[in-house]
């Protein structure tokens, strides 16, 4: 593998691993805030127990997520120094705000929330967890603002061979950000909700604290359904926006080599031959691609061959077609997983309403497996988003080949990939172990009450 391929492999693998924790933190923080809100306003101790139980799981995930996120920052200097030199003035600003404002807000109010159970009033304590949840949303907002610049560069000017920011408002009101942020957050809320539902299903299946976990299951499935529908609608908005900003990514995600007919059909499955640039054994839905692209049942969609010629005229000679198979299948994995999540949430709420949940062992087992589905969807979505942008790092401005550090060696990359992979494997094992340990304890094991009279630092250690 070349230096460029190794650098991409390292950044891709570390990003995907880190992104396993980010949506779960966002979704769990929101779920914990909802559960505590129900405790405060209903004065029901059951919801307090659930708040503390899922709060412990949130703390574990948050701690591991912070560790994996730190490594992301180093790679910009180690492997992508040319990229950092060219767009650092623009790209660095939202990342700095995320670290100095949003993350500090999260961690500060999370600390107050941890230590404040017996020290703050109920409503003040509740406000703290909502501020933690708001902080996670703001972290996502500024990180996505940086990513949106890579997808649709705005608010900058080129001076002395570098991109310099000249309009911060344009950065945080980027049209790409307006469609990317809701889609990502809806996916994160679905991740947290289905995690809570899966854990609750496990406890119900094991006949442990059934009445308590039926409540958390119901709350989680309501949020999962709302978030799943939100993912679908916001994803449709992104598809429409792609037709304006990155039509090549849209064409690749549909395996569309030649211009479509009018109206355009959407290919569900097909065998893609990238060598001959044709598809075989296609299964299509008439009119659907036109609707996804233009929100009406008519209109042609340009193919990759046509767009390649346009890009050559605009940007010069080169191959501007991204890895088609990866883009095509990652989109379908994401969309298929989203549909299954919505259907499962509807089925779960139906069983709960009909009071049949406890007897549906097969569904409860499926709900446990469902925990993995939003992680698969989130990962596939990001692969489609980033791979579909290739060969660009910053669309229309800088290619990925131009972004890699000039002096980085294969040996250092192989060493760091091996080191990071080993460390991530250890962190993943620790996370799973702590999750399983906490889940088995259930809500009856309330650490905060047992150590409420000891030193706060000992109390925090006991919680973690």
Describe the structure.
The chain is built from 18 helices and six strands. With 464 residues, the protein is mainly alpha-helical. It folds into two domains: 384 residues, no CATH class; 74 residues, no CATH class. α2 runs antiparallel to α3 and α12 runs antiparallel to α14. The longest helix is centred in the middle third of the chain and has 36 residues. It is globular and about 65 Å long.
Summarize the structure.
With 464 residues, this protein is mainly alpha-helical.
Question: Overall pLDDT, averaged?
Answer: 87
Task: Give me the secondary-structure category.
Answer: mainly alpha
Largest sheet: 2 strands, antiparallel
Terminal CA distance:
41 Å
Q: Tell me roughly what share of residues is in helical segments.
A: over 70%
Strand order of the largest sheet: 1-2
- What's the shape? globular
How many domain regions? 2
Which band does the percent of strand residues land in?
5-15%
The oligomeric state of the chains shown is single chain
* Spatial extent as radius of gyration: 24 Å
Q: Low-confidence parts, pLDDT < 50 over ≥5 residues?
A: 447-464
What's the layout of helices and strands?
Blueprint: H1 3-19, H2 22-42, H3 45-78, H4 81-115, H5 122-151, E1 156-159, E2 162-165, H6 168-172, H7 175-205, H8 210-245, H9 247-253, E3 266-273, E4 278-285, H10 288-294, H11 304-315, H12 324-353, H13 361-369, H14 372-387, E5 392-394, E6 398-399, H15 400-403, H16 410-441, H17 447-450, H18 456-463
Antiparallel strand pairs: 1-2, 3-4, 5-6
Helix pairs in contact: 1-3, 1-16, 2-3, 2-5, 2-7, 3-16, 4-5, 5-7, 7-8, 7-13, 7-14, 8-9, 8-12, 12-14
